[in-house]
TrEMBL record, chain A:
Name of the protein this chain belongs to: Nodulation protein E
Function summary: Proposed to synthesize NOD factor fatty acyl chain. Involved in the synthesis of a highly unsaturated fatty acid moiety, which forms part of a lipo-oligosaccharide that is responsible for host specificity.
Residue span, Ketosynthase family 3 (KS3) domain: 1-401
Organism, scientific name: Aliiruegeria lutimaris
Localization in the cell: Cell inner membrane
GO cellular component: plasma membrane
UniProtKB/TrEMBL annotation, chain B:
Domain Carrier: 1-83
The name this protein goes by in its record: Acyl carrier protein
Record PROSITE patterns: CARRIER, PHOSPHOPANTETHEINE
InterPro entries with a match to the protein in the record: ACP-like_sf (IPR036736), PP-bd_ACP (IPR009081), Ppantetheine_attach_site (IPR006162)
UniProt keyword list: Phosphopantetheine, Phosphoprotein
Organism of this sequence: Aliiruegeria lutimaris
Protein's UniProt keywords contain Phosphoprotein: yes
This protein's record includes keyword RNA-binding: no
Highest rank taxon of the organism: Bacteria
């Protein structure tokens, strides 16, 4: 089987409009969560989020593009431009035919839906803009990336709620590993911070009104975020032959289903997925230095995840670091695993482990080294990145230092 | 004569538990009645809709909330309190 490496990464999220800004914020433990600035926010019970602030689409895209690009597509394209520029790749001829895009997107064009429902229901109009469908469809982002960069190989979107990005990156990894593609542009995005998007989450009563504090005994729920992160996954020999800078190597992936409950997580299956990812990567638990947790900050996830890590990693669970960067950028739902993979590549490449901020009180049910509040320097050889979605769908990636 | 708060709350809980209202006892817990976490948030939604009130409840910290869900009687008491507090505003 072929080896797969990462040769480019890009992002826009509440911590920054590119990778250097985001990594700096993660190193400094900055919080990107704050008051939401969206229409009708006064009618929401939850008024905070990890929103991308100070972003003006008109400076990045022209009028015709904005008519077709929902916010989630805009975020995707900005992150893809950064990632592909870093990789130094341009796609022509055979390489274009053997390169594709697979993205994790859960909500799709939520702002487009919200705006146009207002038009027809609230304002009572009987006409909407002609591009509503191509703008809101879940695969719009993947398609626009393929069009902008001439990617003509396997291109599709994966929607598995909070595991979408990890599932997408797992597909990208396997497509290259088995020889079906040479390069895959992968990751995910989400732009659900609109009235309808936040109101829907309020209904479940799992959201925090003040902060996301994963693993802290006083945690009181999740906080939504928005943005995108995109990576260039490339076949190792191809990257080596052209002298590309290798950021990290993707070495394993596993996905499972709990087949049990539509919202409650499963310790047994979370542990099984981590074990399968390590098996796929052919590594022992002792190799794992850092786990980027799913770490939503809900009562249910965090204790279940910690117990699952203890089961899957055994005694070594006490010797590794595990953190949730959702405390800083919020939960990007379909895009979250992609933004969190940046913390993984930072740990491998720069030797800096991003902290879990907002950590105030130890929880005996989360008794692992959660890197509270302050980033840490460490030489990390292998990382795992967890995603355990609603619907009981689990996806874990394993990466190694280049 | 409108139904009492007690009767309406019992009807909501009975529907969620798939029981006859007569089988919902005042000292029953939600667990006794087989209502899980999703059933609980759905019951709270039904209560908010029925009484036009807002129930302060976060599933992450049920014990911290002012809304006591320890038994059917406690829920009825809490709803009566919220109705008195939030009506006429």
């Amino acid at each position: 089987m072929k080896r797969v490496v990462i040769t480019g990464q890009g992002t826009i999220n509440a911590l920054g409009t590119n990778v250097p800004q985001t990594l700096e914020a993660m190193r400094e433990g900055k919080c990107g969560i704050g008051p939401l600035e969206i229409r009708d926010v006064d009618r929401l019970a939850i008024q905070i989020g990890g929103q991308v602030k100070g972003y003006d689409p008109d400076t990045e895209f022209n009028r015709q593009q904005i008519a077709l690009y929902d916010r989630f597509t805009q975020f995707t394209l900005l992150a893809a431009r950064e990632a592909i520029a870093q990789s130094g790749l341009s796609f022509m001829g055979d390489l274009a035919a053997r390169s594709g895009v697979v993205l994790g997107n859960s909500g799709g064009g939520m702002n487009t839906l919200d705006d146009n429902y207002r038009t027809v229901y609230e304002e009572g109009k009987n006409r909407v803009h002609p591009f509503v469908v191509p703008k809101l469809m879940n695969n719009a982002a993947a398609s626009h990336v393929s069009m902008e960069f001439n990617l003509k190989g396997p291109t599709f979107t994966v929607a598995t709620a909070c595991a979408s990005s990890n599932h997408a990156m797992g597909q990208a990894f396997n497509l290259i590993r088995c020889g079906m593609a040479e390069v895959m542009i992968t990751g995910g995005s989400e732009a659900m911070l609109c009235f309808g998007g936040v109101k829907a989450w309020e209904g479940l009563r799992v959201m925090s009104k003040d902060a996301c504090r994963p693993f802290s005994a006083n945690r009181n729920g999740m906080v939504q975020g928005e943005g995108a992160a995109i990576f260039v996954f490339e076949e190792y020999e191809h990257a080596k032959a052209r002298g590309a800078e290798i950021i990290a190597e993707v070495i394993g992936f596993a996905m499972t289903s709990d087949a049990a409950d539509i919202v409650m997580p499963s310790k047994q299956n979370a542990a099984r997925t981590m074990t399968l990812a390590m098996k796929d990567a052919r590594i022992n638990p002792e190799k794992v230095g850092y786990i980027n947790a799913h770490g939503t900050g809900t009562a249910a996830n965090d204790k279940t995840e910690c117990a699952a890590v203890a089961d899957a990693l055994g005694h070594h669970a006490n010797d590794l670091m595990i953190s949730s960067t959702k405390s800083m950028h919020g939960h990007l739902i379909g895009g979250t695993g992609a933004v969190e993979l940046l913390a993984c590549t930072m740990a491998l490449k720069d030797g800096i482990v991003a902290p879990t901020i907002g950590y105030e009180e130890p929880d005996p049910e989360c008794a692992l080294d959660v890197v509270p509040n302050v980033a840490r320097e460490a030489k990390i050889d292998v990382v795992l990145s967890n995603a355990f979605a609603f619907g009981g769908l689990n996806a874990v990636l394993a990466l190694r230092r280049a | 004569m409108a139904e009492s708060v007690k009767d309406q709350v019992i009807a909501i809980i009975a529907e969620q538990a798939v029981l006859e209202p007569g089988d919902v006892k005042m000292d029953s817990t939600l667990e006794d009645l087989g209502i899980d976490s999703l059933g609980l948030v759905e019951s709270i939604f039904s209560i908010e809709e029925a009484f036009d009130i807002s129930v302060p409840f976060n599933a992450n910290e049920p014990e911290q909330s002012d809304f006591d869900i320890s038994s059917v009687a406690a829920i009825i008491g809490a709803v009566e309190g919220l109705v008195a507090e939030q009506s006429g505003s």
